[in-house]
């Protein structure tokens, strides 16, 4: 069992005093399922084109899940996170030929673009794998040998529709006709719309049809194996249909850019089998130590590759005597101003331009705040500016500025909390009591926020976690606005205790927000927590005691000097409104 990271503090309940756990990271709340290790993966991205915001979104989802886990379970050795590039296949072979390059030259060029993007976006991966690496070739050929030794591969004539763009075979039911450039009807994939061609060749074939019932049992016994639920149901529906055997190789004369079938150079291993094994390569397969990481694995994937990850991959793993991954988190796609991103429309959004324009943390926040895994999300510039100015610059940054400004907090410290002004018993009255009912609601909301956020992360609803944080930020601003500390006087014996208490509560709320925002906006959160004087060893969820003085416990921050003022937490992007506000004030 994972050690409990929860901290217990007294809180008021309707039935009297009881214990509530804040910042809990118990397995039930965190999704660790009792695993001592956790391994997060993105898909490996195809290098036939430069990265776009959909690729970055996949990486950010995985990064946020991984960072949140690290906050719950300290120690980098217990968490791994891999991403990388998929560099074999017919598409790469054709794209390289079109560009007049050797396939490896194209792979080197585009893989470097993904690596650079992820570095700039602060993706905290522990491994960047390329399928052209020697270690991966060893893993793939060993995996193939295991399937062969277990009698799951046979050679036969495979005939059907093949989609080069999607690198997959399609049954007749998944093919439709669309009018092509010449005006004649052309066969295309029903799901992707990409052209298909009729193919007949001798290949190695995997006995996929044997795994329909084992896959149904796996999903039936693990209702959270695929999240969100609609995608889980989609896979179950697929398994109600015929599950034909799967071609897992191509003729080398047709596809030479790939890993050869062991002992048969006339065949190249199917690109999807090759690519999927990367998840094992990263953790050391076929060496025995890989079993300490497998299957404590969470795959983060786009909905377009669900069948490969939820049917083919688990079946291949079962065939090789391995268990399917612990979780498969599925997300939808991004559109641009209501249209699908495509090179032909010229509306593909360059993520590096967005990181420059909106800042790294700003664009991370936007994608994770607005991205809803269940359905496609829309991008346009005005939406980004409006969200970031409202929630990061005005609400969060404004709150920090208010509570640390010299005019309100001239000592530059974490002021003292006065229990007489803000008693833990709402029924208590007295000359010093200034607290209002809404203030108790704020304390309850922020106190329960870490557990609420952990639940949202477990359910792959990071957007809801950020929504909950944003709601509490608004409540805290309301608290400060209600009590207007700028109207209180530190020199007044009546005002000073309450003024200190208002600032103390607001700073405690900010500390919780900064801690919880670390997985999404790591640099902004670091800036916020550093301004509050919170050391790097006090930023884990296990150390997140919220407002201990309210519950009668000492607060390690009380009286502590604030950190240096390094300027605005998040400068406004819409400078026109900033100029209007300044003009109004003058």
Automatic annotation (TrEMBL):
The UniProt record lists the keyword Transit peptide: yes
Superkingdom: Eukaryota
Example GO biological process: methionyl-tRNA aminoacylation
Domain Methionyl-tRNA synthetase anticodon-binding: 438-536
Location of this chain's protein in the cell: Mitochondrion matrix
Keywords tagged on the record: Aminoacyl-tRNA synthetase, ATP-binding, Ligase, Mitochondrion, Nucleotide-binding, Protein biosynthesis, Transit peptide
Domain Methionyl/Leucyl tRNA synthetase: 39-403
Catalytic reaction equation(s): tRNA(Met) + L-methionine + ATP = L-methionyl-tRNA(Met) + AMP + diphosphate
GO CC annotations, alphabetized: mitochondrial matrix
SUPFAM superfamilies from the UniProt entry: Anticodon-binding domain of a subclass of class I aminoacyl-tRNA synthetases, Nucleotidylyl transferase
Record EC number: 6.1.1.10
Membrane-crossing segments per the record: none
One Pfam family this sequence matches: tRNA-synt_1g
Gene Ontology molecular-function annotations: ATP binding; methionine-tRNA ligase activity
Family: Belongs to the class-I aminoacyl-tRNA synthetase family.
Protein name per UniProt: Methionine--tRNA ligase, mitochondrial
Species assigned in the record: Mus spicilegus
